[in-house]
Design brief:
alpha/beta, Rossmann fold, Luciferase, domain 3, 7-stranded mixed beta sheet, 15 helices, 25 strands, about 25% strand, globular
Length: about 550
């Protein structure tokens, strides 16, 4: 077969660094850390990155070694992203919100050679250090004045590691399939599983993120990354922003503080921001209470959990901010779909258009999707057939890192089973209807917990909602609705159920409602259904004649 005669230039992360440094020296990073806010151009940031590469060499880090981070979103974490991967090692971002036992397991399973950690995690590291087998030492992301008192041996500070080192470094010529980063799943259904990204997948994923119908990132944008850098490559923002020369705003450890987020948006002219719904619910409540405006903000991308309709409507109508659903997984780097309008969906009546916005979105080029029934037969894209959602593509995980046993999610036909149940309509908009393990089977029929949650959260008196199935002697399972009421107009049980009665079929209506101050979330911001079942699994449903 005749081959083309184009240059065989590898797709590696190093090329992003070189391009940004040369083409966007005036753009860069805003970072909240060390008790203040720092600004640093991409040129200066990548100069420090080369110094860090020398430091890695002197620490004895070798190509292929895993280097762990326990860190928030700040400029030092960004430098580690590039220095470690471009050096030929693997940047292993560890989620500090996991349980200590999980963190210890992940570090040992990855066989991390070194750990870079924020000083606030010194007590955590001191507690688990005697159990760790592989790390040789820890570098704390601070200067000498910020060093914590720690019993961990070989502890040093980051700025000392960089001090006096050359700012020129000969980066190795890497194969694009070289592993670049490692991230473990949150382990909600068992032990955390490692997803090993490579340079090629990361670069292609970043290209896709910048596309107009995806995140539509531009040089003029200032992007606030509320998605954590310790999870799934921060949705590719550390790569996509320098690729187009957008400013990257990193909120540090205060990424959940709505006042800090509002300050950053105003001070640095943030135009785009990304995060989970709980963050934006907090920001909305703060803006309403304080009367502040966020004039620069244009777009908000929401993922990790379903976005309440009321939240979308409030930001659009009260603040002029368009909210876009997205969906993906750690196994997908993580981008899978994003909800941006098409010519056809833009012509829908207002009510239908709002319903379309609530769907997770359209597939991004590079990700193939299909839905299949229990026998594995592909189902039509008609918006009504619901089935197991499967994906494949160049940034989708082909296998887990050092698996304990083969995982059935990685099918022999090359597709990855996401564990989600979904529909896809004629226009290609995908909607998650449930997790496979979260659907409620009542009287032999399926009830979607996610759809019930979305309906409940469209009530203006509901800030957040979750639905779990409880055992029922007649129907097998019945839904329990757990609600965090809003501060403005908290509903009562009877009123909420009556309001929902007009929006769902009668036998879907929850048998009971519990009002709580907060709903537990996983380390990645998703509703912790396992914890809800532990807390409320023995709740006694009222004896009512469910229509099951």
């Amino acid at each position: 077969m005749l081959q083309g005669l184009m240059m065989n230039t590898p797709l590696v992360i190093t090329s992003i660094m070189r391009f940004a440094e040369r083409n966007f020296p005036g753009s860069g990073i805003v970072s909240v850390s060390d008790g203040g806010t720092q600004t640093c151009s991409y040129a200066e940031t990548f100069r420090r990155t080369r110094q860090l590469a020398h430091g890695l060499r002197d620490l004895g880090i070798r190509p292929g070694d895993r280097v762990a981070t326990l860190a928030w979103n700040d400029f030092r974490h960004f430098e580690i992203y590039y220095a470690v991967s471009c050096y030929g090692a693997v940047c292993h971002t560890v989620n500090p919100r996991l349980f200590p036992d999980q963190i210890a397991y992940i570090i040992d399973h990855a066989e991390d050679a070194w750990i870079f950690a924020d000083p606030m995690f010194a007590p955590l590291l001191a507690a688990i250090w005697p159990r760790l087998r592989s790390p040789r030492g820890v570098t704390f992301l601070t200067d000498s004045q910020g060093m914590p008192d720690t019993p961990v041996p070989s502890a040093s500070d980051y700025e000392a590691l960089l001090a006096g080192r050359p700012d020129r470094f000969e980066w190795p010529e890497l194969d694009e399939r070289t592993a670049s980063a490692l991230c473990y799943t949150s382990g909600t259904t068992g032990l955390p599983k490692g997803v090993l990204y490579d340079h090629r997948s990361t670069l292609i994923h970043a290209y896709a993120a910048c596309m107009p119908d995806v995140m539509s990132l531009r040089n003029r944008d200032s992007v606030l990354a509320v998605v954590p850098m310790f999870h799934a490559n921060a949705w590719s923002l550390p790569y996509a922003c320098p690729m187009v020369g957008a400013d990257l705003v990193l909120p540090g450890p205060r990424m959940g503080d709505p006042e800090v987020l509002a300050d950053l948006i105003d001070e640095f002219g943030v135009t785009v921001t990304l995060g989970v719904p709980t963050v934006w619910l907090g920001l909305l409540a703060y803006l309403r209470k304080s009367g502040r405006r966020i004039e620069s903000l244009e777009r908000m991308v929401v993922g990790g959990a379903a976005c309440p309709e009321s939240l979308m409507k409030a930001f659009r109508e009260e603040y002029g901010v368009e909210v876009h659903h997205s969906w993906g997984m750690t196994e997908m780097s993580p981008l899978g779909v994003l909800n941006s309008p098409t010519k056809k969906s833009g012509d829908l009546p207002p009510g239908d258009k709002d319903a379309q916005r609530l769907k997770q979105g359209r597939g991004v080029f590079g990700v193939e999707m299909r839905i299949v029934d229990e026998s594995g037969e592909e189902l039509p894209w008609d918006g009504s057939h619901s089935g197991s959602l499967q994906v494949r593509g160049p940034w989708v995980c082909g296998a887990y890192y050092r698996p304990e046993e083969p995982d059935p999610a990685h099918r022999s036909d090359g597709w990855f089973d996401t564990g989600d149940v979904a529909t896809i309509d004629e226009m290609g908009f995908m909607q998650i209807t449930d997790r496979a393990k979260d659907v409620i089977k009542s009287g032999g029929e399926w009830i979607s917990s996610i759809e019930l949650e979305n309906v409940a959260m469209s009530h203006e008196g509901v800030a957040e909602a979750a639905v779990i199935g409880l055992p029922h002697p007649r129907w097998g399972e019945r839904p329990l609705l757990i609600v965090v009421p809003s501060e403005n107009q908290p509903p009562d049980q009877a009123g909420l159920l009556e309001w929902m009665r007009e929006k769902v079929v009668s036998w879907w209506l929850p048998d009971d409602v519990i009002f709580v101050k907060e709903i537990p979330h996983t380390a990645t911001g998703k509703i912790a259904k396992t914890e809800l079942r532990r807390l409320y699994g023995n709740h006694r449903l009222p004896e009512r004649a469910s229509e099951g």
